[in-house]
């Protein structure tokens, strides 16, 4: 009887994890884009009145890892602004319904493009199906389900930030490798040039002069 109960609990837990993986809980946009030098890209999201939203960005590669960010409401009023920022986040509640505009500018840079990660979430995450839908005390299974769901979200966020840091470190390593390669090429060219000059000078010292040149000097 104990084995049968443990098997049922394990099956229910597996089915619940399957539901977690197959459902979308909150309207969110998460992407990485290439921001060209001297350019400005804007993204738009429709948000209803009294709806909470969350904007997060991070420059993962390019130049000094900085970008200008501006967030405007449907009236065109600036509700959030950052200049030459590497990463930041902003949470707000929409005061009016309409299309909100998030712009990322790289106009201050004339030769380096940037790779920018953006996470734009709109709305609160709804309760899990069958959980928080009743006023009674949560069962142990429901409490465990909430804990697992929260842990999964934390894992996803941690994986995203680790990927960003890994991409940033890889980009820096590639840039450092390129600089070392060009510096090594310059050193090699300098050594070869100095060697050729020394050979020519020494060859000139030991070159036999013609007899008429000797007598003319005497």
TrEMBL record:
Q: Which SUPFAM superfamilies match?
A: Supernatant protein factor (SPF), C-terminal domain (SSF101576)
- Bilayer disposition of the protein: Single-pass membrane protein; Single-pass type I membrane protein
Which terms are listed as keywords in the entry? Developmental protein, Membrane, Signal, Transmembrane, Transmembrane helix
Q: Domain GOLD spans what residues?
A: 40-122
Q: Where are the transmembrane segments?
A: 180-202
What's an example GO cellular component term for this entry?
Answer: membrane
Matching entries from SMART domains are given as: EMP24_GP25L
Q: Where is the signal peptide?
A: 1-28
UniProt-annotated location(s): Endomembrane system; Membrane
- A single Pfam family it belongs to is EMP24_GP25L
Q: What's the superkingdom here? A: Eukaryota
Task: Identify its protein family.
Answer: Belongs to the EMP24/GP25L family.
Q: What is this protein called?
A: Putative membrane trafficking protein emp24/gp25l/p24 family
């Amino acid at each position: 009887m104990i084995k049968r109960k443990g098997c049922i609990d394990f099956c229910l837990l597996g089915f619940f994890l399957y539901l977690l993986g197959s459902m979308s809980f909150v309207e969110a946009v998460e992407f990485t884009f290439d921001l060209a030098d001297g350019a400005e890209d804007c993204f738009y999201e429709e948000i209803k009145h009294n709806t909470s939203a969350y904007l997060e960005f991070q420059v993962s590669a390019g130049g000094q890892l900085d970008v200008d960010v501006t967030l405007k409401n449907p009236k065109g009023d600036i509700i959030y602004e950052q200049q030459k920022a590497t990463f930041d986040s902003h949470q707000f509640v929409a005061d009016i319904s309409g299309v909100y505009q998030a712009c990322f500018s790289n106009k201050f840079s004339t030769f380096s493009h940037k790779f920018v990660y953006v996470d734009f979430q709109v709305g609160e995450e709804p309760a899990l199906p069958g959980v928080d839908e009743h006023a009674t005390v949560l069962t142990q299974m429901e409490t465990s389900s909430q804990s697992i769901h929260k842990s999964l979200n934390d894992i996803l966020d941690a994986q995203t930030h680790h990927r960003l840091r890994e991409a940033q470190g890889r980009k820096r390593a590639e840039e450092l490798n390129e600089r070392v390669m060009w510096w090594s090429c310059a050193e090699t060219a300098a050594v070869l040039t100095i060697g050729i000059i020394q050979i020519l000078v020494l060859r000139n010292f030991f070159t036999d002069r013609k007899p008429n040149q000797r007598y003319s000097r005497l």
